Fold this sequence. Notes:
Layout: H1 2-20, H2 24-27, H3 30-56, H4 58-61, H5 63-89, H6 96-120, H7 129-165, H8 177-196, H9 201-227, H10 230-250, H11 255-258, H12 261-276, H13 287-294, H14 298-307, H15 312-330, H16 336-343, H17 348-359, H18 363-371
Amino acid sequence: MEQMQFTAIVLMTLLTLKLLLLPVRAMQNVVVNRSRWLFVASMVILILQFLLQYTFHLRAMGVTQAVMLNLVMFVPAAWLMTLAIFCLQRQGLINSLDRWLGPVTWVVVISLLGGAVLISGKPLLSDTPEMRWAEIISSICFAAMLCYFAWRHLRNLRAMRQSLQNYYDRDMDYMLSWMRWGVIILPIMGLMVPVLIFVPNILLAIFAMMLFGGIFYLVDCFCIYVASSAPAKVREAEENEQQEEQEKVADQVQESACMNPTTLQRVGHAVERWKGNGGHLQGGLKLPNAASAIGVPQYLLSNWLRQQNLKYNEWITDLRIEEAKRMLTEHPDWSNEAVALHCGFTDRSYFQRKFKEKIGLSPSDFIGLHSA
Length: 372
């Protein structure tokens, strides 16, 4: 067990160094830098937790003593790690409940553990029934905190995905896949704490490996994410949403006016003219550029798409797939790369993946079916 604790100390130290040595270009983003320091603070707490376990041999003293330290240290560490992700998701805006729920939960845990010591009249590191019950209740509070954070995480992630889908002409979900896994990893970390009260050392080792793997995954993916262009792309999409709303307010247009059948019909006619001229075949076509080319305000195009339950990237992709079907039928000798380029897809592999996803056949199978 001490070897595992020592391994944890080394792993957390290396992850902290990786966070501290992120490229300077990434640190120029204020939001990213703030998230980085929140992650560093959580790693320092975890290093301290495993160092205390290793130094004082708490697991050898008993399960209760080890779990007590886990609760005291895991609550702030998990809270800071969650805030780091929230900071990225909301461009640095963190609401009061998210900001204070961690400290309040930590105070509740400390109070429960302290109350158990007072009631039992035994020293802090004594294994008493009162302390075990205090740890169980504290673990439930910790798990509840992380389940709430997972719910908030999911809502933030849904808003980010919507912004990306309504701005870019291709699927950008791949940038957020690590955050989706974070929704699962963080509650599991919380649920491990009450389970650890009862499990023997062999199962404890399995849970510990899962914990280490989850923390490594989150920190490593965070570093890759912030060092890429992904944060700038997300920020651009979210800022566009705000500008769209400001444009609508500036024009003093009510939602009912945007959904007026006459208005929607006018937008539809403009879209058909634009499609007839092949406007949808331009590569890298973002929503504002499409609205400008169509000749309608962006908020009207967004409302027109919303009325049809469509996301912008899904709509553009469907139009391009229809054109691709026509080109593959008329020009079966064309390469997939040539078809992708003509239809506005940025690369061949993305075109092939989306074509099979929409049609159920690869482009070559589609050609074979229609040439038979």
